Amino acid sequence: MNKQPRALGIVREIVADLGHEVSYPYDDLVFVDHNAYLLQFTASPETLDLYFNIEFPDEDAEKAAAELAAAAEKREMRIERKGHYELAEKPDDNLEIKFFRRTEA
Question: Domain spans of the chain?
Answer without folding.
Answer: 8-101
